[in-house]
Design brief:
By secondary structure, this protein is α+β, with helices and mostly antiparallel strands. The chain contains three helices and six strands, in the order E-E-E-H-E-E-H-E-H. A hairpin with a 3-residue loop joins strand 4 and strand 5. Helix 1 packs antiparallel against helix 2. The longest helix is centred in the last third of the chain and has 17 residues. The radius of gyration is 18 Å and the shape is globular. The relative contact order is 0.23.
Length: 182
Amino acid sequence: MRKELPKRKCLRLKGYDYSNAGCYFVTICVKDKHEILGEIVGGGVPDAPINVIDAPYCELSKIGQIVDSRIQEMNNLYNDLEITKYIIMPNHIHMIVCIVNSELSIVPESGSSGTPTPTNAKIPSFISTLKRYTNKECGFSFWQRSYHDRIIRDEEEYNRIWKYIDENPLNWDSDEYFCIMK
């Protein structure tokens, strides 16, 4: 007797066209929270004032350096997408990705109705390509199956997310993705 598999919940906003011009906050995680992209270093003594010189940062591993290189490469490769801010953390990356020229690109059609599905839209296609390139260069698959995205609705939210990305290494030990491996 074959066991019925649970249906995966679609994380995309129903009815939203992900090829629209706009900005998105994207988080991509490493499978099982393995900290293979780098480690947080610096910061000195806890609770001490932090200056720019000794602020915590993520020292990238070889895999993290490959991810960084591919992000920069892809940022130059796409003329209709722009990564305006990103950070690589030990087991995830955060990015602000903006679609700047939505009318210049064609979203592939799928299905008999000819309507694009969210997985054929620009952001999902971009993330899929980034994962594929980095997995291929590293020689193994290390990304979690999906990713999280949020449509950035206004300038205030954009600025709040920008600040969150900047401060992510400082708050690593309280980050939802922080995990002490045993």
